[in-house]
Amino acid sequence: MNSPELTFPAPERTHLRLGFVALSDAAPLAVAALRDLGARHGITIELCRQPSWAAVRDTLLSGEIDAAHALYGLVYGVQLGIGGPQSDMAVLMVLNRNGQAITLSRPLADAIEHGASVKEALHSLGRPPVIAQTFPTGTHAMWLYYWLAAQGVHPLRDVQSIVIPPPRMADALVEGALDGFCAGEPWHAVAEARNAGKTVTYTSEIWPDHPEKVLACRRDFAALYPNTARALVRTMLDACAWLDASAHRGEIAEALSSSALLGVPRELIEPRLVASGGDARALPVRFFDGGAVNYPRVSDGLWFITQYRRWGMLDADIDDEAIAASVNQTALYRDAAQAAGIAVPAERHAATFCDGRVWDGSDAAGYLAGFSVRA
Q1: Using CA of residue 189, residue 98, residue 82, residue 26, what is the dihedral sign?
Q2: What is the domain count for the chain?
Q3: What pLDDT is attached to residue 59?
Q4: Which of 137, 129, 154, 121 has the alpha carbon at shortest distance from 371?
Q5: CA 22 to CA 264: how far, in whole Å?
Q6: Cα(215)–Cα(208) distance, integer angstroms
Q7: How far is C-alpha 292 from the geometric centre of its chain's CA atoms?
Q8: pTM for the complete prediction?
Q9: Which residue range forms the structural domain that includes residue 307?
Q10: Quick check: 104 and 197 in contact, CB under 8 A?
Q11: Are residues 22 and 60 in the same domain?
Q12: Is pLDDT at 90 greater than 80 in this prediction?
């Protein structure tokens, strides 16, 4: 990345432990560690694989790890005290957009493929379908709930939603414990390879170019070690930029296949990491695009709070936008991006969802009031 170098004081901490879950979109962390991209910015990175998102939360809060590849909604759940013990959290940057999906069992997916509506297919089971997501306040729960509601299926009344760590999803579908799941890759590709299910929708069809994983830390970490936090953001921006090249995606797919990272064959990782597996319905997973991916818009965080209110997970009388502004470290990100010569996108951005609703963060209360399907 060619950029003018603006210098900051040396990082207060030089060795950082970063948590991740076995998912293809942990690629920026893998790139940063394997290519030692932190050296340029005065830091070294140690990757710490976690078995679940709950483990990421717990190790972040205990200080066992310094920062993590985390679900956007995990950060907000902890901040609000509805996804675990309340703690002030920070979103340093967005690591990727798109790249998630919903897979249903073969019989259900085949019924939909042959003309049944999602509602009809699920109703044909004669019982509430069991569909897994990865964390109660996480992105996958919110994508799943939004999509089901748009199909006329109430996600809290018509479906049994359970939490399973991403690497367990395909196994649970094979075992018949699930009727479907919403998670990241490569677990949808694994489920299809094992003939247990089919991807019925991609999350980019629900919210095109939606924010997904973020670089997260406790807010006291960012406050105590601001130079370290900026160095970490710059390192991850370098990693995300490296991932823009399709040849590099193939290279990191090989690295991700190792047992220390995902432990999944490259041929199941690479297609959906490089080009959405050839499915025209899906937008490709995005890591950088000149920095358009990475800015932690306050409105993105605010959207998650609207969904928690929609589904009865949050009823506290708080200033939602102020909470989002305190979590998303826009000033710190701007410092790091501008030092690297990376453009910062506009604060407001309108997105049109699968149900035709438009979100730009300008009227959260009005947006929330417009949902007919809610808790």
Answers
A1: positive
A2: 2
A3: 98
A4: 154
A5: 9
A6: 21
A7: 16
A8: 0.97
A9: 15-97+210-368
A10: yes
A11: yes
A12: yes
The rounded percent of the chain whose pLDDT value lies above 70 is 98
Give me the mean pLDDT over the 359-369 stretch: 97
Q: Angle formed by the axes of helices 226-242 and 27-34, to 10°?
A: 100
- Could you say which of 184, 206, 228 is where a domain stops? 206
Q: How is residue 293 written in tokens?
A: 């991916």
Classify residue 6 as exposed, middle or buried by CB count within 10 Å of its CB (0-12, 13-18, 19+). exposed
Encoded amino acid at 201, one letter: T
Q: Give strand ranges (E) for the chain.
A: 15-21, 44-50, 67-71, 89-94, 100-105, 130-133, 160-163, 180-184, 197-202, 213-218, 351-352, 358-359
> For the chain, what is the largest distance between any 2 Cα atoms, rounded to a whole number of angstroms?
63
94 residue type, one letter:
V
**By CB neighbour count within 10 A (0-12 exposed, 13-18 middle, 19+ buried), where does 333 fall?**
buried
Query: How many Å from the N-terminal Cα to the C-terminal Cα in the chain?
Result: 47
Length of the chain counted residue by residue:
375
**How many CB atoms are located within 10 Å of the residue 125 CB?**
13
